[in-house]
Specification:
By secondary structure, the protein is an alpha/beta fold. The chain folds into 2 domains: 80 residues, ACT domain (Alpha-Beta Plaits, 2-Layer Sandwich), CATH 3.30.70; 198 residues, Formyl transferase, N-terminal domain (Rossmann fold, 3-Layer(aba) Sandwich). It contains 8 helices and 13 strands. The strands form 3 sheets. Strands 7-6-5-8-9-10-11 form a 7-stranded mixed β-sheet. A 4-stranded antiparallel β-sheet has the order 2-3-1-4, with helices on one face. Strand 12 and strand 13 form a beta hairpin. The longest helix has 24 residues. It starts with a strand and ends with a strand. 34% of the residues are buried.
């Protein structure tokens, strides 16, 4: 059996689920999982269907069989082969804990990723790349000629995405801002992780500032990247409690663990095709 995932969205109206089910059943495709959501605010309908087929299905073949129902309801849709995990590029800077975690999970199969390469403006993550035999691209920071070097790095990045047929870019604590050119080209396909405190502390040394305020909870947010810094649609968020006797290094350790599991969960949901964009928000079928 071959398993596929169909995701779709369209204007909400009666008959969508029946139409999709009938279209698949007419081709002897067996639905094994289905989830749907109608957003009362946007009046949009979202659906994820996993189905089995006795024969392999090409994109062209499915387009033909699904065209009538897709046209009737004005659907935007995608189909994915579950045996082909998203080809991915991981970007990292000095802090390599999320990189290490993702590479390990990908190798063990708990997160379905085909990691094509790792790119960094530091050397910190090179040993993880070498350990797991993943190509490592070291492109130093901006240096004295900031804008020119940044443009050169982004040109290399876009070329690498094209050459390696990258579907997903993961910012595993990559501390450089991507230009609108990159975020627009990879819209809905770049995931970032950042600390997110309750209350929030932005800027330098956030853990020290959180410690000084005596926070009782810290967290992390994984989101899609847009041209607006840290304002993209949220995929997952994680939190962890903080005790009064914890010092700054303890907060850092807890924060790293939250970042690891929050990012891993977001990437897993994406790779299983459970995340659909809904304007500034996401629909997540868990």
């Amino acid at each position: 059996m071959h398993r596929y995932i169909l995701t779709l969205s369209c204007a909400d109206r009666p008959g969508i689920v029946a139409g999709v089910s009938q279209a698949l059943a007419a081709q002897s495709l067996n639905i094994v999982e289905s989830a749907q959501f109608g957003d009362a605010d946007s009046q949009r309908f979202f659906m994820r269907v996993a189905f089995d087929s006795a024969e392999a299905i090409t994109q062209a073949d499915f387009t033909v069989l699904f065209a009538p129902v897709a046209g009737e309801f004005g659907m935007g849709w995608q189909i994915f082969d579950t045996q082909k995990p998203p080809r991915s590029l991981i970007l990292v800077s000095k802090f390599d804990h999320c990189l290490m975690d993702l590479v390990y999970r990908a190798r063990k199969g708990s997160v379905k990723l085909d990691i094509a390469a790792i790119m960094s403006n530091h050397q910190a993550g090179r040993h993880w790349a070498e350990m797991f035999d993943i190509p490592y691209h070291y492109w130093p920071g901006e240096g004295d000629n900031g804008k020119a070097n940044r443009a050169e790095t982004e040109a290399k990045l876009l070329a690498l995405i094209e050459e390696e047929n990258i579907e997903l870019v993961v910012l595993a604590r990559y501390m450089q801002i991507l230009s609108p050119q990159v975020t627009e080209k990879m819209s809905g396909r770049i995931i970032n992780i950042h600390h997110s405190f309750l209350p929030s502390f932005k800027g330098a040394e956030p853990y020290s500032r959180a410690y000084q305020r005596g926070v009782k909870m810290i967290g992390a947010t994984a989101h899609f990247v847009t041209a607006d810094l840290d304002e993209g649609p949220i995929i997952t968020q994680g939190i962890a409690p903080i005790r009064h006797d914890m010092r700054v290094p303890d907060l850092v350790d807890v924060g790293r663990e939250v970042e690891q599991r929050t990012l891993a969960r977001a990437v897993r949901l994406y790779s299983e095709r459970r995340v659909l964009l809904n304007g500034l928000k996401t629909v997540v079928f868990e």
